[in-house]
């Protein structure tokens, strides 16, 4: 880690603390050359393997863009989409993996989107679950109804 004051390529960690959310570590560092102190925040990076085989960093913004398309014309705010993207990232991190197929990201969006807006969920699911017929939509709608109104047998 380069010192931000004198650009010395070395620094030593003098304190480490986990953030409140447990997703990052705050490190207090000191430069051995100028004795300047500074903080860094470290997070584990997530990678996405695209269908083409290219690997790129996970992006909450891309999750938001994809979900926003499904939510077009629905009463969903930008804040709702930001929370959805955060939930997706947290779910991915909880798996303990650092690399995901692009399709896995799409599937991870489904549950939070289902809780946010059922119509948007159906739109999104029709792509990521590759609906091929009306029966696929009917089955998804039946699942939504069963969750909303459990059978009282």
Structural notes for this entry:
- The chain folds into two domains: 12-43; 47-149, no CATH class.
- It contains five helices and six strands; from the N terminus they run E-E-E-E-E-H-H-E-H-H-H.
- It has helices spanning 60-70, 78-94, 102-116, 118-128, 134-148, and strands at residues 12-18, 24-30, 37-43, 47-49, 55-57, 99-101.
- The relative contact order is 0.10.
- The model has no long low-confidence stretch (mean pLDDT 90).
Summarize this, please?
One of its GO terms (molecular function) is zinc ion binding. The protein is 45% helix and 20% strand.
List keywords for this structure.
153 residues, alpha+beta, 3-stranded mixed beta sheet, 5 helices, elongated
| Total individual domains | 2
Structural class: alpha+beta
Share in helix: 40-55%
From the N-terminal CA to the C-terminal CA, the straight-line distance is: 63 Å
The ordered string of helix (H) and strand (E) elements is EEEEEHHEHHH
The proportion of strand residues reads: 15-25%
Give the averaged pLDDT, no decimals. Answer: 90
Number of helices: 5
* Shape field: elongated
Strand order of the largest sheet: 1-2-3
What's the count of strands?
Answer: 6
- Largest beta-sheet characterization: 3 strands, antiparallel
What does the radius of gyration come to?
21 Å
What ranges have pLDDT less than 50 throughout 5 or more consecutive residues?
none
């Amino acid at each position: 880690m380069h010192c931000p004051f004198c650009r010395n390529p070395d620094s030593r960690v003098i304190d480490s603390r986990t953030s409140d959310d447990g997703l990052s570590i705050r490190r207090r560092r000191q430069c051995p050359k100028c004795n300047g102190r500074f903080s860094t925040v470290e997070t584990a990076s997530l990678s996405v393997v695209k269908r083409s085989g290219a690997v790129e960093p996970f992006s909450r913004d891309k999750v938001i863009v994809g979900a926003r398309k499904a939510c077009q014309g629905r009463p969903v705010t930008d804040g709702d989409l930001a929370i959805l993207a955060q939930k997706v990232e947290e779910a991915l991190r909880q798996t303990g993996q650092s690399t995901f197929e692009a399709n896995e990201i799409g599937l991870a969006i489904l549950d939070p989107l289902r809780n946010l807006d059922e119509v948007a969920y159906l739109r999104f699911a029709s792509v990521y679950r590759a609906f091929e017929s009306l029966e696929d939509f009917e089955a998804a709608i039946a699942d939504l109804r069963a969750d909303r109104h459990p059978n009282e047998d």
